[in-house]
Design brief:
single chain, 21 strands, BirA Bifunctional Protein, domain 2, Rossmann fold, binds histidyl-adenosine monophosphate, 37% helix, 9-stranded mixed β-sheet, elongated, 5-stranded mixed β-sheet, 472 residues, alpha+beta, 17 helices
């Protein structure tokens, strides 16, 4: 049963009356999918696979290995360091043994726990990626759901900014592979430690740094009236209000920000310039820019943080991450620097659709379509099964000929013209036509659907001929 377990908000299923609710045994039962979840029909699944395949391919290309963990974890794992916002959105429940558990809202605590458990035996650096389903009881809205898929990329055991830049590079590479360009996205970066130094050396008292972070996170999203209320809620002094207003206006006037930054400690501005130079050396200068408003809501970040946003500013964040150098130690492991990011599938898919970057047909095309114009389906079924099955070598140690994607019609029609249309509709390059006259002579008609040529061949020769034709 889902219970509060000390977290502020919990999952409550609410179904509206609809044709999917029924009165059964005096009770109203509902068959609707829960709010904020998705059904993946074949065409949706094809889009999901397109995105996930790119995430997986790009991660592997950059030397990351795939991992996964449980869908639910001990509630404490998130209470410790994820931050108030995420904890307030947990789907938390108590099991029969009175253990407090929660569906994972993110993967980073699981990853930190996994590394902490086996740190001594893991080769360094640890470069892992994962593609888990995550659950957050957010108010469903454009780009934010209650169940989503999140690609995580994490680089553990390297404290240098090389690891930070490598994470940005993987992230950018995947977005480009999806069809986006440098003009479609921006990456805003910041550094929590440097920012703290800048704030405390200018207008923020050391005990007010977390309030300042809270405000900075909201400055660009709020209008003037909302900002005024925010300053009041955070008990800001008139001096603080004035400074925050300067930062808020810097979005439209970078000179204002530059003037303020000129009063920062030289070490801080030098560190920012050095990182900017390194980003440029990695070919990332065009996409990345230093952005004070990027502070990230999660409590475990310790230094460099970044967020990927739609350059047109229309959508919620596409991805976000940063350094969490203390988390593994906190979960009982050795002191290990770590950096990583998460990217959800929801905003990415919206962006790809809005920019018209999804390939037109994502359904996997068939290789061969078998048309049966005989009374009986036995020969056709045997042929389909034979072509679909992979062939192995004599000692069964390797596949010598992979099985083909073979489709056939389940309709009762023997109208060859209509069936050829069905073959073209599923993208097949070859059609095999079993007709009474040819089959009585042990032959079959083979039609090349790309160049429309036709040939009559022996049924026994079909596998060799078809595999020969489909060779890239
Ligand atoms: P996050 O900023 O909470 O960071 O989430 C990262 C990304 O996950 C977001 O930019 C968004 O694309 C997606 N996302 C988050 N919540 C939702 C939602 N309710 N619906 C759809 N998509 C969502 C983290 O989760 C960190 N653990 C990332 C990280 C990995 N940091 C280091 N390693």
């Amino acid at each position: 049963m889902f219970t509060a377990c000390g977290v502020r908000r919990v999952f409550r299923t609410s179904f509206k009356n609809s044709r999917f609710s029924r009165k059964l045994f005096g009770m109203t039962v509902n068959f609707q999918a829960p709010k904020g979840t998705r059904d993946f029909y074949p065409s949706d699944m094809a889009v999901r696979r397109f995105i996930e395949d790119i995430w997986r391919k790009v991660s592997i290309r950059h030397g990351f290995q795939e991992v996964d963990g449980p869908t639910f974890e001990s509630l404490d794992l998130y209470r410790v360091k994820s931050g108030d916002e995420i904890v307030s959105q947990l789907f938390a429940f108590t099991d029969r043994g009175e253990r407090e558990l929660a569906l994972r809202p993110e993967f980073t605590p699981t990853l930190a726990r996994m590394v902490a458990q086996k740190a001594a035996g893991l080769p360094r650096p640890i470069k892992w990626f994962s593609i888990p389903r995550c659950y957050r009881a957010e108010q469903p809205q454009k780009g934010r759901l209650r169940e989503f898929i999140q690609w995580n990329v994490d680089f553990i055991g390297d404290a240098s900014d090389r690891a930070d830049r490598e994470c940005i590079a993987v992230c950018v590479d995947a977005l480009m592979e999806c069809g986006l360009t440098a003009a479609d996205i921006h990456i805003g970066w910041n550094h929590r430690e440097l920012l703290t130094q800048a704030l405390t050396s200018t207008f923020v008292a050391p005990d007010r740094v977390s309030n300042a972070y809270y405000i900075l996170d909201r400055l660009q999203k709020y209008d003037f009236a909302a900002r005024k209320a925010l300053y009041q809620e955070q008990h800001c002094t008139p001096g603080e209000c004035e400074h925050f207003e300067t930062i808020a206006s810097a979005g439209t006037s970078p000179e204002v920000l530059t003037t303020w930054m000129n009063s920062w400690p030289v070490a801080v501005t030098d560190a920012i310039k050095t990182f900017e130079k390194r980003l440029a050396d990695s070919g990332l200068a065009e996409i990345c820019r230093f952005d004070l408003s990027v502070v990230r809501g999660l409590a475990y970040y310790t230094g460099f943080v970044f967020e990927v946003v739609d350059a047109q500013g229309q959508n919620r964040a596409i991805a976000g991450g940063g350094r969490y150098d203390k988390l593994i130690e906190m979960f009982g492991g050795p002191a290990m620097p770590a950096v990583g990011f998460g990217m959800g599938d929801v905003v990415l898919e919206i962006l790809l659709r809005e920019r018209n970057r999804l390939p037109a047909n994502l359904m996997p095309p068939a290789d061969v379509f078998v048309i049966n114009a005989l009374e009986d389906a036995t020969i056709s079924d045997q042929l389909v099964a034979r072509l679909r099955r992979s062939q192995w070598n004599a000692d069964h140690s390797a596949i010598t000929r992979p099985g083909l994607n073979v489709q056939t019609s389940y309709r009762s029609t023997r109208n060859i013209g209509k069936l050829l249309q069905e073959a073209s509709g599923c993208g097949a390059r070859v059609a095999l036509i079993l007709a009474p006259e040819e089959v009585s002579r042990g032959m079959i008609k083979l039609k090349n659907l790309t160049d429309r040529t036709e040939a009559e061949i022996a049924i026994a020769d079909v596998p060799d001929r078809v595999h020969g034709m489909l060779k890239p």
